[in-house]
Design goal:
Radius of gyration: 19 Å
Bound molecules: 2'-O-acetyl adenosine-5-diphosphoribose
Shape: elongated
Helix content: 40-55%
Largest sheet: 6 strands, parallel
Oligomer: single chain
Number of strands: 10
Structural class: alpha/beta
Strand content: 15-25%
Length: about 270
């Protein structure tokens, strides 16, 4: 990473009073959670046309339930085992220096685990069960996820049927007078999670610096947030080892290395 760019970004951060940090899968890569579109990304093995929306998942569950079991396992297991990395921790510490809001596309709860207080989960959370109207029902915890992971491993030892598959989801899926309850994750064609999305749009109107971390910014409408910020003439810093998507100060590198460096440079 270029030292002059780090200094430029540090100076922007030092002056900022209201920082919004917009994160994607890349920030959790060093916690062992795969991204979606990189070479070892989730969508390589599980194409989004088949696995990233409810209708596709239902069709797969009927035609090839083992593939759905493998997909859910590939999503759940790394998240159930992950702990925050230095990038999540640096963002939590940043709140000691300035006002910070995190807007994340991730469902892994790692920002909250690291200590961040204001977190907008615009693609929902694997840890929140909601009913069919999106109303909060209850929280899941890591042991709940780990027990589902164990069930799925066991399931995959034998012939998977749709009935066995549904039975292994019984701790996270429910049927009651309020309809089907399920984790509040947002898939393709779903509306974004509320009130988080409305709050995130307000944050984009209100911040005086945005730091974009570990996202390919391919998914609408979340990817419009940095554009809204730029349109107000507000600076954007982008942290990504691969590429940058916006007219920003690009800090090329892994989030878990670059974010602590940025904080040290901004607040020596
Ligand atoms: P992607 O997989 O599309 O992009 C991950 C980004 O992280 C890429 O730009 C990588 O270069 C970068 N990256 C990889 N390792 C990194 C590291 N160690 N530090 C920093 N950056 C790193 O993931 P997202 O942009 O988060 O939505 O994907 C957005 C949405 O697409 C997801 O929330 C999900 C997915 O489909 C839904 O399913 C609704």
């Amino acid at each position: 990473m270029e030292i002059t760019r780090l200094q430029e970004a540090a100076s922007l951060l030092r002056q900022a009073k209201k920082v919004t940090v917009f994160t994607g899968a890349g920030i959790s890569a060093e916690s062992g959670i795969p991204t979606f579109r990189d070479d070892a990304g989730l969508w390589r093995e599980f194409p989004p046309e088949r696995f990233a929306h409810w209708k596709g998942l239902m069709q797969e569950a009927w035609s090839d339930p083992a593939s759905v079991a493998r997909f859910i396992l590939a999503v759940l297991e790394p998240i159930a085992k992950a702990v925050p990395n230095p990038a999540h921790t640096a963002i939590a510490h940043l709140a000691e220096k300035t006002t910070v809001t995190v807007i994340t596309q991730n469902v892994d709860n790692l920002h909250q685990e690291a200590g961040s207080q204001r977190v907008r989960e615009v693609h929902g959370s694997l840890f929140k069960i909601v009913d069919s109207r999106g109303t909060f029902v209850r929280r899941l915890n890591k042991p709940d996820l780990l027990s589902m992971v164990a069930h799925l491993h066991e399931l995959l030892q034998s012939k998977v049927t749709i009935f066995k598959l549904l039975r292994s989801f019984r701790s996270i899926l429910g049927l009651s007078w309020r309809g089907i309850s399920r984790p509040s994750i947002v898939l393709f064609h779903d509306d974004l999670a509320q009130p988080d999305w409305s709050q995130a749009m307000e944050d984009a109107q209100w911040c005086d610096l945005m730091i974009v971390v570990g996202t390919s910014a391919q998914v609408f409408p979340a990817c419009t947030l940095p554009v809204r910020v730029k349109m107000r003439g507000v600076p954007v810093i982008e942290i990504n080892p691969g590429s940058h998507e916006f007219d920003s100060v690009w800090l090329e590198g892994k989030a878990a290395e670059v974010l602590p460096q940025l904080l040290s440079a901004a607040y020596p």
